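Subject: Interface between my chains keeps coming out wrong

I've been trying for a while to get a sensible model of this assembly. When I model each chain on its own everything looks fine, but I need the whole thing in one frame so I can look at the contacts. Pasting all components below, labels as-is. Any help appreciated, I'm running out of ideas.
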Amino acid sequence: MPVTIRDVARASGVHISTVSRTFSAPHLVNPETRVRVLACAEDLGYRPNRAARALITGRTHNIGLIIADIANPFFPPLIKAAESQARHRDYHVFVADTNEDAAAEEELVHALAKQVDGVLLCSPRMSNSLIEQLSREVPLVVVNRQLAGLPCVLMDVGQGARSAIEHLAGLGHREIALLGGPRGSWTSREIRRAAGAAARTAGAELTVLGPNPPTEHGGLAQAEQVRRAGVSAVLAYNDLMAIGLLEGLDALGVAVPQEVSVVGVDDISLSRLTRPKLTTVATPTAAAGRTAVDMLLQHDTDLPRTGRAGGAGTTVGVRRTTAQVMLQTELVIRDSTGPGPYAGRERPGATAEGPGPHRRADPGGPRVAAGDVVAS
Amino acid sequence: MPVTIRDVARASGVHISTVSRTFSAPHLVNPETRVRVLACAEDLGYRPNRAARALITGRTHNIGLIIADIANPFFPPLIKAAESQARHRDYHVFVADTNEDAAAEEELVHALAKQVDGVLLCSPRMSNSLIEQLSREVPLVVVNRQLAGLPCVLMDVGQGARSAIEHLAGLGHREIALLGGPRGSWTSREIRRAAGAAARTAGAELTVLGPNPPTEHGGLAQAEQVRRAGVSAVLAYNDLMAIGLLEGLDALGVAVPQEVSVVGVDDISLSRLTRPKLTTVATPTAAAGRTAVDMLLQHDTDLPRTGRAGGAGTTVGVRRTTAQVMLQTELVIRDSTGPGPYAGRERPGATAEGPGPHRRADPGGPRVAAGDVVAS
DNA sequence: TACTTCGCTGCAAAGGTTTGCAGAGAGATC
DNA sequence: GATCTCTCTGCAAACCTTTGCAGCGAAGTA
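Reply #2:
Try treating it as a single job with all components included. I did that and got this:
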């Protein structure tokens, strides 16, 4: 039933190799022959079998995209950007969801390994050593995790968290809670580290609550704790948790931002739709998706090939592109943050508005600066 | 570099066919030999090349999932359910996003065709005839579209729309607007048809606005039109549009539900987080994902194989599983609907509460009934 | 002992494609 | 007219598996 290269060859009276070349190296075949072959192929509805092609070329023209949780609105912009970027380079993207499960991640990398030319690992939950081990099986680009010796795309959430804490301190908050993210998250550690340092500098006290699942429910479940902690401001690991917290506080009758200020991270589109609108640290997710694809495909020719073209012993040293890209974040101030109990009074250290890239939100949504290679 | 079956054979001193059988038919090989081979394979880090296997067996153990828009929160539950169901049957799911673009859909089906055993086509935007044509290339299950002769998973949005209109009419609304969905959407047509009929029965007038992009912005952009239309209630194609409309009305100073009632469709998790909370028609998305996978894999053995095992001429008649499943929907009443201008006055036809499956929302979220094969 | 049965293993073809190499013509150059 | 160059095409091996068939030795049966 499925029409193969052989059928086309028979129909157009040429050898299969000529048909093959008609598609993969058209300049090598006589224009007349070419049109004839193409006509026959069209007629018969022939489509090259990419799997068979991959078997010999070692190139599938697919890339895998492993995502911690598709339901998290943080990811779709990244996915779409990656897909669009890949499409331009004639690659297809296969997305897979791991449900925040480290074991599922490993399993998926293995399953994808032979079917794609490389894998984008987004917000991985597994251990560094496992990632390194897997990177020997298939080219990997890691997003939202820093690993020496592996290409990484990072977002400067440290700077973002710092800006957020400075913003809160500037508003007169001295007791601040941090809603931590999931275990195994590099971003969560980064935020915690930077927020802790910024709080110390600003003379504020930071209470860490967590780890928590990075979902609305994770935030909602901590509302009671937040109230009990007696803080006047909260920085959440991500917008989803911040939104859940908004809900939870509302249910407890706690007014935001009058009684408690809330800051999220990510600037998902939803954060403009809550009441109050969420103050948040915008992360350049689309840029991250594009960049990750670029880094993976950067050296098309460097990608390992199983086919005989890349002769054994030619390049024994495995590809080790260690470029790491850090993308900038930006604090977007909306309505969920307001004056704290110490507003107006003098505070130890720090000015009212820190040096971070703050911005009062404009209606059109944030324009996020991106770029900045920090190492390579 | 990549270790093949041959390396394992060499290392364990057996023929490659024995190694192959160790993995794909363990009962055929001597236990002693088996452990030796497995040990060598483990040692060398051997992983069967699924692509090569697929070349001969005709089975990739992958299924493709084509989605109109990953950013639409309607889809993630469906994706996750499909993935989980597939995993249980030792299948992997490759998700791809089409950006609501019919051309991208076709392109993706072609790209996936030879790399998966079947494709789930969710909310397709392309024409029926094209879908039928593509279904000859690869087994297809269609979600959210009815096509004779193809397996379909449908949600009874007609019933949902009817319930919504009856609910609104029961509250005393007689001028109702319908925010249509995207062109090419079966669901949109279905809603429009059923809502029109229900409005006629209830003695209400239905104004159709659209088609619109099925996004927040699509709803937001229609806020002005809604106000100008002078209606007291709106049924939107989906929750995202309803939420956008909520925003738009808020910006125009129109109070919901005091001045205008709003009903959405889908019951995405977000609809519980808006202010006011959204009244909506819950659709069984997870059930749809599970069902679609089941239908595709139902007859593992029926799937066409390119390998020689399925000899030519044995089953010439292509598989034509025409089972169609209709899943039930349910109206979930929250806070975005309230009494209309004719509340309390007598209305032509219909009782205050129609016969549809209405339910006052409970905090735990909806339990949706599913099932009901309507044809096969 | 001769024969069958059974469990295990090896052989080789097949699946659809790519690609290095060689060969066949045609045209150009001297 | 001989030689060279160049363009195009065919040949066949290779990629990594699976699987029908056949063979081999051991155990069981008569």
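Reply #3:
Confirming on my end. Residues 14-18, 21, 28-30, 33, 52, 54-58, 114, 306-308 of chain B lie near DNA strand C (CB under 10 Å from a C1').
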